[in-house]
Amino acid sequence: MLFKKELERRRTFGIISHPDAGKTTLTEKLLLFGGAIQEAGAVKSNKIKKGATSDFMEIERQRGISVATSVLAFEYNGIKINILDTPGHKDFAEDTFRTLTAVDSVIVVIDVAKGVEEQTEKLVEVCRMRNIPMIVFINKLDREGKDAFDLLDEVEQKLGLTVCPLSFPIGMGYDFKGIYNIWEKNINLFGGDSRKNIEETVEISDLQSEVLNELIGDAQADVLRENIDLVEGIYPKFDKTEYLSGHLQPVFFGSALNNFGVRELLDCFVEIAPKPRPKQSEERLVKPEEKKFTGFVFKIHANMDPNHRDRLAFVKIVSGIFERNKPYLHVRHNKKLKFSSPNAFFAEKKEIVDISYPGDIVGLHDTGNFKIGDTLTEGEIINYKGIPSFSPEHFRYINNADPLKSKQLYKGIDQLMDEGVAQLFTLELNGRKVIGTVGALQYEVIQYRLEHEYGAKCTYENLNVFKACWVDPKNSNSDEYKEFVRVKQRFLAKDKQNQLVFLADSAFSLQMTQQKYPSITFHFTSEFN
Ligand code: G4P
């Protein structure tokens, strides 16, 4: 049974972190261990670096990198690993949220000195809500940082996780000697002046053994014994079922830059991380081992070359086998489509493939058929859930600056919204268009891309909105609902799916409105059924 074997050996995951915690470095080290790249520095950071270049050049540079790093696939010990890239910059947080709908597990990277940071909190919350299995990697142990127990407390409190350390550091920063691997019961010792290499790995089945004193000295041996006693006393024992259900999070310590703790992490990951998981659709739960292909679009990438306006739609295969040139149903359009050159991803290359399995990502060339969340099947009507839009943080009117190019402008806006660059709202009162974004940077992206890819020009005007709240239509026949629509018309808009949205101008006005119309439910994400 080739299909079953291929399915069993897939691990599709994302690495999440606050910018600078070491996500790129860790990704690169994982690829090095997998033999997918030969040297450090091959994986480019997808960070937005402010400074030398103007912002839109930086955005283009970032876009270029993010095409290359969208999916990094490699093999390790017979396991096919797909790493899905997640931008760390908060202005692209929505991209990351969407990518998290396509992963089966995540690794959370935390900087030992900075501890739990803002972006980590937000991303982990999304994973927790979906019970995505998580492994925590505490990075930069070669530097002075917070006490290991304090950090574990912080992770539990700020991230709401139940941690279970599977490794423990011996010293830190200048005194860093190595790491005791609780999972494998051995010690990796850091060596050399630069402390960049593992000097030796020593099996330690009994921590009371004198060998430990010889290796790390009496003082540190005693501290390690005490620490491990504490770990065993305080934290739950590792339980794979609990981890897989999202209720227990193993923790590893290490230094991605110095290759420390990375192999331990990877070895444990391939052993415990989940194979492709079933996915809930609006209609039913779809299991990966089902024979018929289903998949959904979680990311769309526009061509970097403005002369070729095709795009690459990234499809996660949920069930069955995806085959080249086989007609599949595009559920939203009720239309059959065939793909003659689907791309699969390996390290940093993409290649045309004939078949792909659940857990894999295929890149499909698209001339404007797809938008994020679209489902492909062999004929069954299935709509995958779980790609909601969150309320944007910024809102601006978009105006046409070149009346002769209005067609181009609207086409451009339409396609950029399908890609998920921002959200479009059309005011009920006067039909004016409002663009909502997570970060201010997206307005530059839109303006630049409209001009360079569609030949259209736009200007913006600020609009004071505190939050977009999706209005539940369940009581839409009631008098209260009708009065709400009449009184608040000035603040009402439709999103791209034609759902009614209340654009509250302040927290206070939202609260007053909720009090005045108690039978109306307001939602903070676009998906609420
Ligand atoms: P990110 O993708 O999460 O944003 O982080 P990235 O890997 O780019 O790492 C951020 C910075 O932290 C980089 O330094 C990187 O070299 C450093 N770093 C990563 N892992 C470790 C580690 O284990 N120990 C130490 N000491 N540093 C680490 P940079 O100076 O910003 O960039 P670069 O010039 O080195 O590329």
UniProtKB/TrEMBL annotation:
**Any Pfam family matching the protein:** EF-G_D2
UniProt family annotation: Belongs to the TRAFAC class translation factor GTPase superfamily. Classic translation factor GTPase family. PrfC subfamily.
Ranked from the top, the taxonomy reads: Bacteria, Pseudomonadati, Bacteroidota, Flavobacteriia, Flavobacteriales
GO cellular component terms listed in the entry, alphabetical order: cytosol
Keywords for this protein: Cytoplasm, GTP-binding, Nucleotide-binding, Protein biosynthesis
Localized where? Cytoplasm
Functional summary from the UniProt entry: Increases the formation of ribosomal termination complexes and stimulates activities of RF-1 and RF-2. It binds guanine nucleotides and has strong preference for UGA stop codons. It may interact directly with the ribosome. The stimulation of RF-1 and RF-2 is significantly reduced by GTP and GDP, but not by GMP.
Give me the residues that bind GTP, please. 17-24, 85-89, 139-142
Protein biosynthesis listed as a keyword: yes
Which organism's genome codes for this protein?
A: Wocania arenilitoris
Query: PROSITE patterns from the xrefs?
Result: G_TR_1, G_TR_2
Annotated Tr-type G domain ranges read 8-279
An example of a GO molecular function for this protein is: translation release factor activity, codon specific
> What is the name listed in the Swiss-Prot or TrEMBL entry for this protein?
Peptide chain release factor 3
Query: Which GO biological process entries does UniProt record here?
Result: regulation of translational termination
Q: Which InterPro entries match?
A: EF-G-like_DII, EFG_III/V, G_TR_CS, P-loop_NTPase, PrfC, RF3_C, RF3_dom_3_sf, RF3_GTP-bd
